Please model this.
Amino acid sequence: MNGLDSLRAALVRAAVQIGAPADIAPVLERPRDPAHGDWATNVAMTLAKPLGKKPREIADALIAALDTKAAGVSEASVAGPGFINFRLSTADLASGIARILQSGEQWGKGTGGNGRAAMVEFVSANPTGPLHVGHGRQAALGDSISSLLASQGWKVTREFYYNDAGVQIANLALSVQARLRERAGDALVIPEGGYHGDYIREIAERYAAEFPNDPRGEQLEQVRQVAVRELRKEQDLDLRAFGVQFDNYYLESSLYTDGLVDKTVSGLQKTGHTFEDDGALFLRTTSFGDDKDRVMRKRDGTFTYFVPDVAYHVTKFERGFTRAINVQGADHHGTTARVRAGLQALDMGVPKGYPEYVLHQMVTVMKSGEEVKISKRAGSYVTVRDLIDEVGRDAVRYFFLMRKGDSQLVFDVDLARSQSEENPVYYIQMAHARLCGIFRVGEVDATRVTGEGLDWSVLDTPEERELVKALLDWPAFVATAAENLEPHRVANWLLETARMVHTWYHKCHVLGEPEPIMQARLALAKAARITLANGLGLLGISAPERM
RNA sequence: GCGCCAGUAGCUCAGUUGGAUAGAGCAACAGCCUUCUAAGCUGUGGGUCGGGGGUUCGAUUCCCUCCUGGCGCGCCA
Model:
């Protein structure tokens, strides 16, 4: 039982004494304003109606009935409309640091996932070009969401779905063929819906070098294979540069070769939710919340992308993933209802909200005050690798994660590359490096700072109390971020906590202070360093020891 | 027309799931380096939380409605 639980229990006992029902669960929260104490509860206000008394009267009665010693608080007072504010002694508050030091890299981990399997699918770019900034946002989000879930005890698989079948791949092959023909002396004719970028020309060069006997790319299937292979290689390099590792790549083409597409269609026909109209096969997705019925098999006999999509998600369910989370651009949001509808129509026990979607809005890249246009087809291009080369992996990660996915993101290249106070990622890393510097300069072996036998009451400056509270809140904070699949919460938390660290660093000197103070502050410094490092780790950002 | 998302300080955005006087960074102004990193710290000013209703002890947060912007609404993926 930690301190908060005993406070809550004591509060319930007091409430029952004054006539409240025993099943209340008082909400305790950190007041925004430190002058309001270390914890606060609104329980008196929620009891006003059932008890028929004024909130402040109830609060007074509660405090009178409260066993403050058992609750672990040094002071309780009524404030505002009926809040009860609690204050802890500095020693009680700061002794929590020992838990951080004991936990180390485990600090912030939770057990809510309970070892169940979750899949996070992200990036899933068509192999028709390099990864652009939108994929970058997905890569950062997906990787961090995976880490968040893993931190809460989920067994996470990161998967990349490879759309290596379909019309766009055919266009890719034709585009490379067009460049090959240009190269062989023909006029350049890029097909309708084809790709214009320079990378197409590079692939043509490689093909020509590899197959000198086919200079015009007549062997279209062979051209396709080379193009997909080369682009996969490029995308792998992009991902490696970004530090993202997938556990599995799932090929769309395998859904056809393994017969899963046909199986899905016959399964849907069997459950009776399909119908034919005008030579095409439809799924009655409107029965499952979609706003119109969807074509499964076109009049020309081929399937729409929606069918392999459903087949793919069937495999996720059958592979035993309790949760499937898809990270995608908001332009795909139209597909969410129909994939879910397809799974429901199969009537195989898939939960209604399966899969879950994390959709993110567009990214605009600003440079020198101007928007850099992204257009794959037109060939002007901002790739993930461009960004990483220009501003570094850590900054790219942070910038993609610092905004809520629902917000459009402006990526300011000049800000991201500036190594100054304006740049949040350097600010946070600097806080970490400074804490390391204390141990380095003081020649203190950090492994020997265990938090045992210290006088915690010396950490009683306002800066120290606030920092300690923030650090102790970290596990609850990670749990919330994981629950909401929102890494930006971690990014913002780190920025705020880094600010507290910098303030504390200036206000509270460590080395050369009297022994009890120095030892307690070393423990605090180490606890802050651990927490910052763990937080940066969840975002995939390095925690440098010096800068 | 319908659906999803957004609208908070001059700019870019948070807001701990309905709490107390709505926050941060940048930009502006004024200060701080013989002591652990000035890539830093301290202070000042800045608001009709898009508008209007409603729900209640209490709303930036929940509901309704309107306005503005983005995305989607294909037998493309």
Observations:
- Chain A has a mean pLDDT of 91.
- The first helix of chain A runs from residue 3 to 17.
- Chain A is about 50% helix and 10% strand.
- The radius of gyration of chain A is 29 Å.
